[in-house]
Amino acid sequence: MLFSCEGITKCYNREPVVEDINLELFQGGFVSLLGPSGVGKTTLFNVLSGVDRPEAGRVLLSGEDITGISGRVSYMLQKDLLLHHRTVLDNVILPLVIRGMNKGEAREYAAPFFPRFGLGGYENKYPRELSGGMRQRAALLRTCMPLTKGLRKAVILLDEPFSALDALTRITMQNWYQGIAAEMGLSTLFITHDVEEAVGLSDRVYILKGKPGRITECIDILPPRPRSRDFPISPEFARFKRTILEAIGLEFTVEPLKKGSVP
Fold first, then answer.
1. Residue 243, class by beta-carbon neighbours within 10 Å (0-12 exposed, 13-18 middle, 19+ buried)?
2. Dihedrals φ, ψ of 237, to 5°?
3. Number of C-beta neighbours around residue 259 at 10 A
């Protein structure tokens, strides 16, 4: 087990927001956390990343207790948060500079990663000159920078990174991320509200529900990754989508078209 949490409870104003959370992420795995808004997903990520300490429980990385210790896993928020007055390259190297690396050395170190992230030739552009998808790639590269020397044990937490993109760009980014995660050995814990995104990307989906938020279901998605390109239109995909919708508490029906009606 590469990354896990055990019995995590986090409170605000003495009221629990999430309670008794247990998650597991294997090396190279992709796990999604899915649930309605306001259920405590981002609160949990703040604990897992070390930004906040829980009232109970612990976070483990390769068996080491890292509860409340930031910087051991990478964490990317929904918004790219690129600094408009810095070039893309200087945005990407920011975590390295904060950790004490000389700016010139950091630029040399980061530059070879740009082609791998589809950003070759954009090092000296500014965020306003990039498309939404390219901005997310730049933000993801910045997130990976502190861990690039040990990526085979790199854990990355992604909080709805593609939700602000249009549908076609989102699909492109999902496919791209699967490739880059496999290439670089990233292990991913992913927050999403999108059931299809969760089914398409994940090895396992955890359902978080209630007040306080608790894990109510753990659903393993089959077949194992990597999957065929036809998986999103397969009966298996539809079955897992229905299973997750029902686990969340949503039901849907498809009424047959009436004779002579136009869809």
1. middle
2. -60, -45
3. 5
d(Cα 44, Cα 8) in Å, to the nearest integer? 8
| Residue 117 and residue 180 in contact, taking contact as beta carbons nearer than 8 Å | yes
pLDDT by residue, tens only, the chain of 263 residues: 899 999 999 999 999 999 999 999 999 999 999 998 889 999 999 999 999 999 999 999 999 999 999 988 999 988 888 999 999 999 999 989 988 899 999 999 999 999 989 999 999 999 999 999 999 999 999 988 876 665 456 899 999 988 888 888 888 889 989 988 888 889 999 999 899 999 999 999 999 999 999 999 999 999 999 999 999 999 999 999 999 999 998 755 544 545 554 44
What angle do helix axes 132-144 and 167-184 make, rounded to 10 degrees? 20
**Residue 208: left (phi > 0), alpha (psi -120 to 50), or beta?**
beta
- Residue 149 near residue 157, CB atoms below 8 Å: no
Task: Confirm if 147 and 154 have CB atoms less than 8 A apart.
Answer: yes
pTM score: 0.88
Other Cβ atoms closer than 10 A to 14:
6
